Here is the input.
Amino acid sequence: MSHATITTIDPAVERSKELLERIFPSPRNFTIRLWNQEELPGESDSAFTLILKHPGALHRMFSPPLELSLGEAYIYNDFDIEGDLYAAFGLIDTLSSRIFSPTDVAALIKEVQSLPKTGIERSTTRRPFDLKGELHSPKRDREAVSFHYDVGNDFYALWLDRQKQYSCGYFPTGTEDLDTAQDKKIEYICRKLHLKPGESLLDIGCGWGGLAMAAAKRYGITVLGVTLSERQAEYGAEQSARLGLGGQVRVEMRDYRDLEKESFDKIVSVGMFEHVGRHHLPEYFSQTYRLLKPGGLFLNHGISRRGQPADLALLNGFNGHGKTASNGPSFFERKVFGAGSFSQRYIFPDGELVPVSEANFIAETAGFEVRDVENLREHYGLTLRHWVRRLEDQREEAVQLVGESVYRTWRLYMSFCALGFESGQTNINQSLLAKPVNGKVNLPMSQAYLYK
Here is the structure.
């Protein structure tokens, strides 16, 4: 007597498979593995495997806004990527390039919402940051900076270079190791500023003080470094004293806007400009112009984005509040995709990028003369890949220090940023600005001195 085998069909599995085929139709260059180990195969040379950890994974991944949901679902381990993480970011490009009508979008959202909502309990180690108070007020800016930079000095030390440079390195040949590239970046900045013994330098957003200490030691100058991160300020003050630079270098927890009586021969800002905010750029450049002595130089090193047609509204000038007109993101970008939502909640609260042309236009209105602009985006792509690889190599210790969700957050955002710089969607610019005296600027006629 034969016994018929009864096959139980799991509705969650079948509905998930149907939805996945609609979102990522075959043929695709990756494999999908469900929580029951069933696979939806990709091409023979799949670049990676998308692993759904539980029946509620798709609900968590694709509930609007998509960018925020996908980011959260990754850092809280609702899904994982086995294989090439960089290649997996193509999923976002696939979604954004697909043409969905409003009806299609509504149907997909409805289908996603009908999927199971159960899943892994999420860690409380890294929760989204909800800032209160006036945008870019001193108090709110301190809280935003602390959220990112005060994760822990020991965590950053695992994967940064010896001088703790949390900014783009400089790779003249493209083959330098990270320590060498960061040291060359510091030297490159010092040469652009044409530093001379006895001069004073203000380092705005000085981080852990690596640039300030190196510049003081090599060029015989005095440096004031200011940061809004308490842990960075403590480390910088201790390290400068340990190196015997206490008489030359001060690293303080201080807002650059609070500097009133001081003046400096040179000013540098590396990786801080992105936190200023578009509407506060006139204040930023006016303050740096006031703090700079006549004849001085200001090197502004910051991340920028490519200009968009809406940015042309800048040509109409600023209104009385220093704000520019803009059409803003579309409904789809804001409500469905949620562009920038993950970064704002988990990475850089209140961070905002503008085109370098806009930034330098505002610098000129403050009185600066633009002497040189350089795009180092390929260098930042290399820097980020070094950081990601070093972080991955130290995964076990990183998780012990800050938890799995923080490790996954930094791995995710740095990998994504690397591709942004490599593709040209994001840039990193060094703008050398001068405060001329009677039309004269104390710089050589040639830039050959930069490369000796």
User: Anything to note?
Assistant: The two ends are 90 Å apart (CA to CA). The first strand starts at residue 31 and ends at 33.
